[in-house]
Amino acid sequence: MKKLYLLLFSIITVSFSFGQATDLYFSMYGEGSSSNKFIEIYNGTGADVDLSSYSVELYSNGSATATKTLTFNAGTTLTTGDVYVIANSQADQSILNVADTTSQVTYFNGDDALALLKSGTAIDVIGEIGVDPGSAWDVAGVSGATANHTLTRKSTVCSPNSDWASSAGTDANDSEWVVTGIDTGWSDLGSFTGCSSTPSLSITAPTNNEVFAPNTTSVDVAFAVQNFTIAQSGGDGYMVYTVDSAAPVNKYDATPITVTPLAPGSSHTVTLQLVDNSGTPLNPDVSASVNFSVASYTQVATLADLRSGTVGDYYHFTGEAFVTAGQSYQTGAVKGYFQDATAGMMAYVPAGMTTNQPNNGDGITDIKGQLTDFHGVLEIELTEDFAMTGNNTVQTPQVVTISDYNTNHDDYESELIKIENVTIDPASDTEFVGNKSYTVSDANSNTVVLRTAFSDLVGETIPTVTVNITGIGSEYNGTAQIFPRDIN
User: Fold this and answer.
1) Whole-number Cα distances in Å, 33 to 92, 218, 375, 378
2) Residue 165, H or E segment
3) pLDDT of residue 331
4) pLDDT of residue 329
5) How far apart are CA 445 and CA 460, in angstroms?
6) Which of 57, 60, 90, 191 is the right S-S partner for 35, CB 3.0 to 4.6 Å?
7) What is the per-residue pLDDT across 202-215, written as a single tens digit (0 to 9) for each?
8) Centroid of chain to Cα 242
9) What percent of the chain has pLDDT over 90?
C-alpha cells in the first residue's frame, strides 16, 4: 500500500508478577481513520484515585497553551487496575462501547500534543507541548507514528513521563510504546496491565486477518517481546516460529520474520513461541499467532462491471478505456480519469507506480488495483502499472442539464460531461483560485458546484458571460461537482 496496517495481537503472560505504578499515565492512544480517536488512562497505583485533581489537555498545531481541556467532577473515581477511556463522539461504535466519556480533547491529529495533568502540572505527555512536528512525531523508530497509528504503553512502564523524547524513544527497545497500525488495538481498549515483570509477546505486524494486494510477494511479521531477552547465548532463551505447516525454526533475535514467496489467493499462519535456553516452552505458555492472506484479482471487461464491484476488493480491467483527464499532486501521485462506452472511473496512481504518461484520448488497458471510495467517488487505486493500447479516441462530452445532473450525478461520475448556457459566480475573484468551489447557475436558477481541481484552470480569468462548461463529473460527500479541465 500504500499503508501497512498493524495490530497489537494477543499478549499472553507467563506468570502474574506486577508492581505498583507511581501515578496515572496514558496507556493507549489511537489516531485512526475519520473520527476514530481515543485516549486511555491507566491506574496501576494499587489504590482507587479521585480524578478531580487530574485533567487532560490538547495542544493543537504547536500551541503552548491548551486548546481543549477535559476536567473531572469530584467523585469521579478510577479504580485501581482499571482504565478510563476518552473517545471522540463520532468514533466507531466499538470504541464508544468501552468509552467512559467523549470529549473534544480527542480532536487531535498526529501533530497535536496531549498532556495528563495533576493539580495543574503535566505528569504524562504524548507529543511535545509548544512544538509543531510537521505532520507527526516518530515513536519507537516508526516515522510519523502519532498519526494513523495506535500507541500502546509497554506493560513494563510503571510511571508517567513528562519527557516526550524519552517516552517516544528512538527504537522499539528504548521506547515506552508499542506502535501498531491505523484502526488497530480496539479489542484491547478498555483494559490494561502495567508495571509488570512478566514475559510477554505480541505480534505488531501484520494485522490479524489482513489481506494484502495480489502483487505482494513477501510479508514481514514483526513482534515485540517484553521482560525476556532473546539471544543464542547469555539471554533468557529464544523464539521458535512456524509458517503454515513448515518445520519449526529457531530465532535468536527480535528482527522481523520475512514470509516469502507469496502467491495471489494464498492464506498463511505464523505462530511464535518463547522457549528457555534448553528449548522448553515457558510455563504457562507465551505464544502468539497471526493469519494473513494475499488477494486475487477479479477480472472485469467493462468499467460498468468495475463500478459494480465491492469496495476493498482487487480488480483487473482487461478492456480498453480512453483517458479524459489527469491531475498531478506535489507528492508525485496522479489522479487520472478514463472512460469506455459503459462508464467512467477515477484512478489513483501512487508516485512512481507508472512510467506511462498518456494524453487525453489515449487508450489504456491492463488496469490492476483496489476499488476504494474517495468522499463518495469510486476510484481504483493502482497496485501495478497499466498498459497503453496505442489507440487514440478523444471522448465526446455528454450534455446534461444542472437539474438532471444534481439528481443523477452518480450516473455521470468520472465521465466527461457538458453543461450549457450557464453563468459562474466569481465569489469576488477575477481569476480562478486553485481547489476552490464556485456556484454555476442556469436560466432556471438551478445551481451546481464548479471545483477548480485542475491546475490548468488556475489563474485564468473567470468569464462574466454565459458559457458552456465541459469537465469531469464528480461529487464531494454527495454534493455534485464538475471539474473543468482548462479555460477552454
Assistant:
1) 10, 26, 13, 18
2) helix 164-168
3) 64
4) 58
5) 25
6) 90
7) 898 898 999 999 99
8) 30
9) 88
Count CB atoms within 10 A of the CB of residue 455. Answer: 13
62 DSSP 8-state letter? G
Mind listing the pLDDT tens digit for each residue in 292-349? 999 999 999 999 999 999 999 999 999 999 999 987 655 667 889 999 999 999 999 9
| Residue that is written with C-alpha cell 486511555 in the block | 40
Q: How many CB atoms lie within 10 A of CB 385?
A: 13
What's 306's DSSP letter? H
Residues 6+ apart with CB under 8 A from 184: 5, 6, 7, 8, 150, 207
C-alpha 97 chain-centroid distance:
22
- The torsion angle over the Cα atoms of residues 173, 273, 256 and 27, rounded to 10 degrees, is -40
- pTM for the model: 0.79
Report the candidate in 166, 126, 125, 119 with the shortest Cα–Cα distance to residue 149. 126
Q: Count CB-CB contacts under 10 A for residue 192.
A: 20
Q: What CA–CA distances, in Å, run from 352 to 196, 212, 362, 436?
A: 46, 19, 20, 28
Q: What Cα–Cα distance (Å) separates residue 407 from each residue in 411, 415, 431, 484?
A: 9, 16, 29, 20
Arithmetic mean of pLDDT, 152-174: 95
